[in-house]
TrEMBL record:
Underlying gene: LOC105168530
Protein name as annotated: Citrate synthase
Pfam family, one: Citrate_synt
Organism in which the protein naturally occurs: Sesamum indicum
InterPro entries assigned: Citrate_synth-like_lrg_a-sub (IPR016142), Citrate_synth-like_sm_a-sub (IPR016143), Citrate_synthase (IPR002020), Citrate_synthase_AS (IPR019810), Citrate_synthase_euk (IPR010109), Citrate_synthase_sf (IPR036969)
Gene3D superfamilies: Citrate Synthase, domain 1 (1.10.580.10), Cytochrome P450-Terp, domain 2 (1.10.230.10)
Family to which the UniProt record says this protein belongs: Belongs to the citrate synthase family.
Length: 471
């Protein structure tokens, strides 16, 4: 049984100094952890029947309620503004940014357990929150950390499969290939072949998802060490948390870098359902493809430069600015460089968004991190100057709907500061984090019995004829 305890939560949040405006929104949704049970699976098992009932009621009582009109602009314009997906784990407000199960990023930073007092949230805590809608206790997070470590052994054939690729293959290609190779261990596939009843689908999906989340940092760090560190692999630490361990396996034991990785993995995990990677994962999973197949597909979408690859593009672009204009480039020179980029028919990477209409809060929290840990870093100063220089120029173009920076505008300079300088690798880090969001929703897709995704498409001729008819 789940209890809603908004009032006591409110005072708990207040005593931790959470800002009021956002708080009012989140309290409506947030469920407080009332159980000390540290087993995530049994918590989910308890939650699923009531959420199934909730969906059934929504369908039977309100199934015919209209959510808006579909215009030809929407059909031709990448479905922008068209509501068409159920995604429980997070919701994006165009002005305010992402909320994970109702919690904003600053609220997650205050409420989710950290490795040390006042530190960045542990991604395992976010996973617990996304899956259950409840803020976990430190004991629950520690238990989940341990479970993930226990599931992290990657079969040998996965390394051999990656090794079959040329070392020059893009890190995302190597990573997605590794994830495909992990698929041979899918519990869902085995259970389906044995004829599992549909009401039980979520159970092997849960098994696959937790194993996948546990193993992606191991595969990702293998790819990094293979390409950039002569294949000298660093084994997992037997007591570190998920984010700390990922930094460790990559070769970074600086406590500040480990904190950065915890923040990085937390904030990149989920961005509601319509972004290319989440939507791809959800679509592929709707055919009852298992979590490995679905997530590998999602990674291939993330590897596109308008989506996840933008973090690579941003650092490469910043480095090209430095190469051409020097580290202490003036704002005037920066403006010229931005115009040069635009005039050569390219986008300014790290700016703009399909849904957001203000500065991405994921950008803002990375800026906070930089102000705290690396205020004098020259590339951080350059990024700060771009924040002033780029938006007015994009507005001047007259077509850009959001001139403000997104998550990718900032992540590279933080990683670069701590020595992770290989920009081509950056999207792999995004991918590791995104497994948490996509797999959490996938478990709920199965638990709620969501159907095959199959929207209707039409031709230009069909649209022209339709317009003549309605004119
Ligand atoms: N630089 C130059 N032009 C831009 C930019 C930008 N940063 N952002 C939008 N535009 C252009 C866009 O290309 C389009 O031009 P055209 O009509 O000639 O095709 C026009 O402005 C209208 O686009 P919007 O409706 O504002 O944006 P849309 O929803 O289509 O695309 C992005 C969103 C994110 C793809 C776009 O803003 C972009 O290309 N940004 C740079 C790449 C980037 O940072 N991507 C990462 C997004 C976050 N993530 O991690 O996935
Ligand atoms: C994401 O995190 O997926 C990006 O910001 C893109 C999006 O939300 O469309």
């Amino acid at each position: 049984m789940v209890f809603y305890r908004s009032v006591s939560l409110l005072s708990k949040l207040r005593s931790r100094g959470v800002q009021q405006p956002g708080l009012r929104n989140s309290v409506r949704w947030l469920q407080v952890q009332t159980s000390s049970d540290t087993d995530l699976h049994s918590q989910l098992k308890e939650l699923i029947p009531e959420q199934q009932e909730r969906l059934k009621k929504l369908k039977s009582e309100h199934g015919k309620v209209q959510l808006g009109n579909i215009t030809i602009d929407m059909v031709l314009g990448g479905m922008r503004g068209m509501t068409g997906l159920l995604w429980e784990t997070s919701l994006l407000d165009p002005e305010e940014g992402i909320r994970f199960r109702g919690l904003s990023i600053p609220e997650c930073q205050k409420l989710l357990p950290a490795a040390k007092p006042g530190g960045e949230p542990l991604p395992e805590g976010l996973l617990w929150l996304l899956l259950t809608g409840k803020v976990p206790t430190k004991d629950q997070v520690d238990s989940l950390s341990k479970e993930l470590r226990n599931r992290a052994t990657v079969p040998d054939h996965v390394y051999k499969t990656i090794d079959a690729l040329p070392i020059t293959a893009h890190p995302m290609t190597q990573f997605a290939t590794g994830v495909m190779a992990l698929q041979v261990q899918s519990e869902f596939q085995k259970a389906y072949e044995k004829g599992i009843h549909k009401s039980k689908y979520w159970e092997p999906t849960y098994e696959d998802s937790l194993s996948l989340i546990a193993q992606v940092p191991v595969v990702a760090s293998y790819v990094y060490r293979r390409i950039y560190k002569n294949g000298q692999v660093i084994p997992m630490h037997d007591s570190l948390d998920y984010g700390g361990n990922f930094a460790h396996m990559l070769g970074f034991d600086n406590p500040a870098m480990q904190e950065l990785m915890r923040l990085y993995v937390t904030i990149h995990s989920d961005h509601e359902g319509g972004n290319v990677s989440a939507h791809t994962g959800h679509l592929v999973a709707s055919a009852l493809s298992d979590p490995y197949l679905s997530f590998a597909a999602a990674l291939n979408g993330l590897a596109g430069p308008l989506h996840g690859l933008a973090n690579q593009e941003v650092l490469l672009w910043i480095k090209s600015v430095v190469e051409e204009c020097g580290e202490n480039v003036s704002k005037e020179h920066l403006k010229e460089y931005v115009w040069k980029t635009l005039n050569s028919g390219k986008v300014v990477p790290g700016f703009g968004h399909g849904v957001l209409r203000k500065t991405d809060p994921r950008y803002s929290c990375q800026r906070e991190f930089a102000l705290k840990h690396l205020p004098d870093d020259p590339l951080f100063k350059l990024v700060s100057n771009l924040y002033e220089v780029v938006p007015p120029i994009l507005l001047e173009l007259g077509k850009v709907k959001n001139p403000w920076p997104n998550v990718d505008a900032h992540s590279g300079v933080l990683l670069n500061h701590y020595g992770l300088t290989e920009a081509r690798y950056y999207t792999v880090l995004f991918g590791v984090s995104r497994a948490i969001g996509i797999c959490s929703q996938l478990i709920w897709d199965r638990a709620l019995g969501l159907p095959l995704e199959r929207p209707k498409s039409v031709t230009m001729e069909w649209l022209e004829n339709y317009c003549k008819k309605v004119a």
